Amino acid sequence: MTHIRADRICETSSLTGTGAYLLAGAVAGYRPFSAACAVGDTCEYFAESAGANGVLTPDFEVGLGTLGAGNTLQRTKIYTSSNANAAVNWPAGVKRIALTITAKTMDDITLSTVNAATSLIQTQKIMAQMLLAGQTP
Questions:
Q1: pLDDT of residue 102
Q2: Phi and psi at residue 131, in whole multiples of 5°?
């Protein structure tokens, strides 16, 4: 199982309820999940609903998904949603499901980068102090 990040992956689904998304094909101009993911791979996704007239509704979901057999995307973990951060109970209608990088991931990357930079600065200070004291680092 690999965690996948890829550009321009977006499919439709007509899922109702809270189950796995049955991916129904790429949105025009986009690629299907199968172009980047194999069964068992994980990815971060967002889902949104368009009403009968094509206008987006307030319903949305962002999370970690796992590509399953039969062209499904399992909702492995919900990060945030219009349903109090739980799986959205989707009504009838077309949903768009897209591979994305989430705010949670960006926050994790930022924190990791800050921690690495702090460690590097502390190491450099220790080495400078050792050099000033005539010691070999």
A1: 72
A2: -65, -40
Domain locations in the chain as residue ranges = 3-101, 103-137
Please name the residue that has the structure tokens 């930022």.
Answer: 110
Mean pLDDT by 10 residues, the chain (137 residues): 92 95 96 96 94 82 96 96 97 92 67 61 69 71
**Topology given in CATH for the domain delimited by 3-101:** Elongation Factor Tu (Ef-tu); domain 3 (2.40.30)
* Under 8 Å between Cβ of 89 and 18: yes
Q: What angle do CA 1, 106, 116 make, to 5 degrees?
A: 95
86 DSSP 8-state letter: S
Nearest alpha-carbon partner for 46 in 35, 29, 33: 33
Q: Which neighbouring-strand residues pair with 98?
A: 10, 46
Token digits for 42? 């994980």
Place of tokens 């062209």: 71
- The burial class, CB within 10 Å (0-12 / 13-18 / 19+), for 45 is buried
